[in-house]
Amino acid sequence: MEMDERKKKILRAIVQDYIATAEPIGSRTIARKFDLGVSPATIRNEMADLEELGLIEQPHTSAGRIPSDSGYRYFVDCLMDPPRITDEEKQVIERETTKRISEIQEVIAHTSKLLSHLTSLTSIILGPHKGKSAFGQMHFLPYQPGQAIMVIIKENGVVDNHIVDIGDAITAEDLQHVANVFNNKMKGQSVDQVKKNLLHQIYGELARQRRLIDNAMELLSTILDEVEQPEKIYLGGTLNMLNQPEFKDLEKVKTLFKVFEEDERIKKLVQPTQEGLNVTIGGENTLKEFQDCSVISATYRVNGETIGAIGVLGPTRMDYSKVMAVVDYMTRSLTEILTRRRR
Amino acid sequence: MEMDERKKKILRAIVQDYIATAEPIGSRTIARKFDLGVSPATIRNEMADLEELGLIEQPHTSAGRIPSDSGYRYFVDCLMDPPRITDEEKQVIERETTKRISEIQEVIAHTSKLLSHLTSLTSIILGPHKGKSAFGQMHFLPYQPGQAIMVIIKENGVVDNHIVDIGDAITAEDLQHVANVFNNKMKGQSVDQVKKNLLHQIYGELARQRRLIDNAMELLSTILDEVEQPEKIYLGGTLNMLNQPEFKDLEKVKTLFKVFEEDERIKKLVQPTQEGLNVTIGGENTLKEFQDCSVISATYRVNGETIGAIGVLGPTRMDYSKVMAVVDYMTRSLTEILTRRRR
DNA sequence: GTTAGCACTCTCAAGTGATGAGTGCTAACT
DNA sequence: AGTTAGCACTCATCACTTGAGAGTGCTAAC
Q1: Do B250 and A254 touch (CB under 8 A)?
Q2: How many Å from the CA of B48 to C1' of C25?
Q3: B253, A258: Cβ pair inside 8 Å?
Q4: What does the pLDDT look like over B294-325, one tens digit per residue?
Q5: I need a labelling partner for A75 at 20 to 30 A (CA). Which of A105, A216, A331, B333 fits?
């Protein structure tokens, strides 16, 4: 069976109306609301075909039709108005993102809020992965008698600091010396490499500061091996889900919110499967709790390198065109902000 | 009218049963479940008295009685078994808190989880307030051509760092010089003071680095004025509320969770009004969304100084004895951990 | 190929009545 | 005087029925 023009029109009508009202729509209503020039009976026949094609379904005998997952998929791929951001949305985003915020976490948290606000759905942002970064520089700053602050700058520019106990016997010059040795030997190396290859060298050169070195190495391990610490997840507008009629059931809300607390599974949702905008509809995603939901996601970059993902979660019945436009624009916006910030 | 022994017994029975079942309890059931040696009719008479005293109430004519806020209050103050932590709870807490965690945020987050888990309610922890701290030291570290990392150490030992753009013309010595001037002039001063009194001096001494100074001052403002950044709030087990029968209504859930997102109002809930354990029952607290809820809270300390609060939020119908015991114990535990950690 | 007509199905909301829990009151009992 | 049995009354809840409305599929006519 072929998808002729009229079938397409009818499917589009069904999807659009269902997205707007969340009510199954019947042939009579379609004929009334959408000017297709045919009678309800004709539409009924077409709908029977569409159902056979698996694009729409009936919740029960005497209800109207609703789109199936495949129906949404077809709609998104072939029927939908192309995603186009409205001037109003654009303005809001511009206004909100030009506020100068320095901390990257805050930028992302703010983006998350904005995204959920614009879509009235739940936003999910995968924070930038810290990236296993190699050793860059080390410095010691005087702090208090017997203590110094060890500052470690990773190769990717992230700065970490820790207070370390030093003996009273160590002078500023000694510290400088230790730092110099580390900086020379370790530049660009991972901790494992250092432990294997260079530690005895360092010990050799700095025999007297053995305790300080051990201390420093331990700190370096924890700081540079921070990769295990997973990317942070930012959720925004989780409450918006409660306004969706598909979550008027308390049990559903419970399971939904339970999953919201499991970062690992949320992460899977926005994990991009391909470049550009990802649209995952209903059962296409693997989490059974979200079989009634769709996710629009995309990745954001810094200096061309993909470092995180941004997504919107909503009921399958969402305004794909609008949400896709917003996610797309926000991704670019975020990429731009982060890139500019880094310059 | 006096509260004689029998009235007390009956009130206690009503509260205990209602806490356990969440169902209004009638005279017959009381006579059956609790061995008071009198007939339902007598209990009815007593209950009429208790109602007149405002300690219990009837949801509707033919339902049993439930405790009123005053009833709970009387129960907590006079009737309840004294809070006593069980060995089992104690063990769990010991086990969980001996895991060595270094970051204070993590300690608190973990405590929050533990607390909500033990009580099956929602835990609220007010993070340690950062305290307005004055300028301590400043350092510049070389980073990339044209950029340096400015490290600011506050008087309380908190370290902050930011990448700053410096011109190509500035040498390491220049930077050192700038830092020295700042360190000399500003030690222990607040930013406002500096702006008022010292800025022109600094400009005078460092005429050539005017742009860098402006830059630095701006950063200092944001870093040192961080007080405005409020104490962080840790919520745990918010989902537990969904298991409470009083929140089977979706509308209630919505308003509840909305308030959960408003830190300012949550803060009010646990803000201690007196030393030791605070018990706020139902309408006693000021937030109208929480008129059906009670809060048990207490403050935790470091080195004798109160730095935050810890609390449990649940329906008015909660197991006061148990929750009070747990909150009390956890407070001590947290105080101890933080104090030990600081040594 | 399209449409009108019609019987049929199914949900939903409103109405009904039985049931049961619980009360307050009265009068009898100890 | 305090306690209890008995009883009429109230009210929520549940199961059941019923009617209305929406929608369908089928058939026959256009």
Answers
A1: no
A2: 12
A3: no
A4: 999 999 988 778 889 999 999 999 999 999 99
A5: A331
Q: Which nucleotide is nearest to A38 (CA to C1')?
A: C2
Phi, psi dihedral angles at A279 (to 5 degrees): -120, 115
**Distance in angstroms: CA B80, C1' C27:** 38
Chain A residues inside the 8 Å CB shell of B142: 137
Q: Which nucleotide is nearest to A28 (CA to C1')?
A: D23
- Please say which residue of B204, B228, B252 terminates a domain: B228
Q: Which nucleotide is nearest to B47 (CA to C1')?
A: C23
Owning domain of residue A152: 135-228
Q: What is the mean pLDDT of residues A42-54?
A: 96
Structure token pair of residue B268: 């009010």
Nearest to B242 among A137, A143, A250 (CB): A250
With an 8 Å Cβ cutoff, is B105 touching chain A? no
Same-domain check for residues A237 and A332: yes
Last residue of one domain, picked from the residues A169, A194, A228: A228
What CA–CA distances, in Å, run from A83 to A80, A278, A317, A319, B206?
A: 8, 13, 16, 10, 54
Contacts 24+ apart (CB under 8 A), A92-95: A92/A118, A93/A118, A93/A329, A93/A330, A93/A333
Chain B residue at shortest CA distance from A149: B159
Which residues in chain B have their CB less than 8 angstroms from residue A113's CB?
none
Tally of structural domains, chain B: 3
List chain B pLDDT tens, one digit each, 343 residues.
789 999 999 999 999 999 999 999 999 999 999 999 999 999 999 999 999 999 999 999 999 999 999 999 999 999 999 999 999 999 999 999 887 666 678 889 999 999 999 999 999 999 887 656 678 888 888 887 888 888 888 776 777 777 777 777 788 888 888 888 888 888 777 666 777 777 777 777 777 777 777 777 777 777 666 555 678 899 999 999 999 999 988 889 999 999 999 999 999 999 888 888 999 999 999 899 999 999 999 999 887 788 899 999 999 999 999 999 999 999 999 998 888 764 4
Q: Do B161 and A161 touch (CB under 8 A)?
A: yes
Q: For residue A136, give the chain B residue with the closest CA.
A: B143
Q: Which residue in the set B157, B159, B253 is minimally distant from A253, CB to CB?
A: B253
Asked if the Cβ–Cβ distance from A161 to B162 is below 8 Å, we say no
Q: Long-range pairs for A330-334 at CB < 8 Å and ≥24 separation?
A: A330/A93, A330/A111, A330/A114, A330/A115, A330/A118, A331/A298, A331/A299, A331/A300, A333/A93, A333/A97, A333/A111, A334/A107, A334/A108, A334/A111, A334/A300, A334/A310
Angstrom distance (rounded) from CA A156 to CA A133: 6
Q: How far from A134 is each of A128, A163, A214, B175, CA to CA, in Å?
A: 17, 21, 19, 26
Instruction: Check CB contact of A221 with chain B, cutoff 8 Å.
Output: no
Q: Does residue B139 sit in the same domain as residue B203?
A: yes
Q: How far is the CA of B14 from the C1' of D8 (A)?
A: 26
Size of interface A-B (CB pairs under 8 A): 57
- Which residue in A103, A49, A230, A132 sits closest to B219, CA to CA? A103
Q: Are residues A159 and A252 in the same domain?
A: no
Q: A83: closest CA among A334, A327, A255, A341?
A: A327
